[in-house]
Amino acid sequence: MSRPIILGIVGDSAAGKTTLTRGIAQVLGPENVTIICTDDYHKYDRKQRAEIGITALHPDCNHLDIMQQHLSLLRTGQPILKPVYSHTTGTFEAPVYVKPNKFVIVEGLLGYSTRAARDCYDVKVYLAPPESIRTSWKVKRDTQKRGYTEEQVLAELEKREPDSEQFIRPQRQWSDIVVSFYPPSDDINNTNGHLNVRLVLRPTIPHPDFTKILDFCDNTMSAIRLGLDRDMGKPVDVLEVDGHATLEQVNKLEHLICSDMPYLKNVCNREVNPEIGKVAGTTGETIQSYPLAITQLLTTYHILKATQIYQ
Ligand SMILES: Nc1ncnc2c1ncn2[C@@H]1O[C@H](COP(=O)(O)OP(=O)(O)OP(=O)(O)O)[C@@H](O)[C@H]1O
Ligand SMILES: O=C(CO)[C@H](O)[C@H](O)COP(=O)(O)O
After folding, report:
1. Distance of alpha carbon 70 from alpha carbon 32, whole angstroms
2. What values do phi and psi take at 90, rounded to 5?
3. What is the DSSP letter of 31?
4. What residue's CA is closest to ligand 2, atom 9?
5. Is 241 inside any structural domain?
């Protein structure tokens, strides 16, 4: 029997979850996707958290039991009455009735923190940019969209670090894919908006056969690289795509991902889908990121594979 396919996107605050979620929803067709942000399951509002002295990253600051119940309901195609947390006001709003579409993307801080929650996903992604990049993203986003000053954001990040270490980063181990956008050099202000991506591919789900990459990118200096490594002690494949990879190189990689997936083949066509890999740069300008495009496509590939298995 058909049921919704659930993608998890987990990572620390401002790690890029919403950006990746929107890109994948765009590829799948927004009308086919239900997006759940687990920030809505916070137990306390912004003022209460400050009074109690608890951070939003702590499991005790979130209704994880209700989040888990809702994930189980969504997985079986049932509707939920979802709480709503507003980042604009830092308070809760009236709950909303949510009926799952064909695909459900659940993005947030603590999505993989319990076994029962983890069991609900078909595909699990963890976002892990270097902390310097995450800090700059959080400062920019929270000052522009959430009413904080830069000093407040930096102080909050410092206060949150113990909880990030204890509760957020360990969730990396449960993911099928770890995504790290990173600057090509140590100077994060001089990336020209073009970040590379490092994709850690665990053997927990079957990935496309990337060994064919070696036919067109055969040395370690190439802008697209495939290698072997260990992640949290476990053997993994690693695919890296540089921000300065050429369109020709990226097209070959995209076709490799899309070749056995008819729907993705259409999506891969930039004329059909010019939005793939688009992201807002530091000054609001739109940047075309090939590393982001590949990440969106690979994740979509796995969602569609899960569809073939379960629908
Ligand atoms: N791949 C990327 N390339 C360039 N900039 C990015 C990328 N991903 C995210 N950003 C920047 O970082 C900011 C924060 O990203 P985003 O809102 O996606 O994070 P998040 O993990 O959803 O955050 P939160 O959990 O705090 O809501 C964005 O506003 C965007 O400017
Ligand atoms: O870590 C976060 C994920 O988005 C937020 O800081 C958390 O959800 C609390 O939101 P706000 O800072 O808007 O009160």
Report:
1. 19
2. 75, 25
3. G
4. 56
5. yes
Cβ 148 under 6 angstroms from ligand 1: no
pLDDT digits (tens, 9 = 90+) for 158-185: 999 999 999 999 999 999 999 999 999 7
Residue 52 maps to a domain: yes
What is the phi-psi region of residue 166: left when phi exceeds 0, alpha when psi lies from -120 to 50, beta otherwise?
Answer: alpha
Hunting for tokens 């687990």 — which residue is that? 38
- Domain boundary, last residue among 91, 126, 161: 126
Same domain, 99 and 212: no
Q: Are residues 287 and 189 both part of a single domain? A: yes
Q: Is 280 in the pocket of ligand 1 (CB under 6 A)?
A: yes
Domain-located, residue 171: no
Q: Determine the pLDDT at residue 275.
A: 84
Rounded distance from Cα 278 to ligand 1 centre (Å): 13
Cα 56 to ligand 2 centroid, rounded to whole Å: 6
Using the mean position of ligand 2's atoms as its centre, give its distance from the Cα of residue 276 in Å. 27
C-beta of residue 291 within 8 angstroms of C-beta of residue 243:
yes
pTM: 0.96
CATH number at residue 49: 3.40.50.300
Residue located nearest, by CA, to atom 2 of ligand 2: 13
pLDDT digits (tens, 9 = 90+) for 83-140: 999 999 999 999 999 999 999 999 999 999 999 999 999 999 999 999 999 999 999 9
Q: What is the tens place of the pLDDT at every residue in 24-79? A: 999 999 999 999 999 999 999 999 999 999 999 999 999 999 999 999 999 999 99
Say what the ipTM of the complex is.
Answer: 0.98
Helices vs strands, H then E, count in the chain:
10, 12
In a domain, 305, yes or no: yes
Structural domain including 5 reads 1-126
